[in-house]
Amino acid sequence: MSDLVSIVMPVSGKLYFKESLDSICNQTYRNLEIIIIDSSDDQNEIKEILLAVQDERIRYFYQEKSGVANALNFGIVKAEGQYIARMDADDVAFPERIMRQVEYMEDNPEIDVAASSYILINERGNGLKKEVKSFTYEEVKFELLFDNPICHPTIMFRRSVFDEGWSYRQVFAEDYDMWTRLAVCKRLSVMPDILLKYRVHADNLSNVNVLKVNDSDINSASIYIKTLFGIHIRDDKKWLLARTYHLSQITADDIGDCGGFLIAQYEFLHRMKEAAEQLEDCQKNMLIKIILRRWRNIIDMSNIVDPPKELYEFPSGEIESDNYKSRLKRVIEENDRWISRRQAEKVKFFLYGFGERGHRTLGRYQELHKSVLSSWELLGIVDKEKKSYSVGGHICQTYDKEELIRQEYDCILVSAYEYYEEIRSELLTLRIPIKKILRDNIIFFFQTEVL
Question: Which pTM value belongs to this model?
Answer without folding.
Answer: 0.87
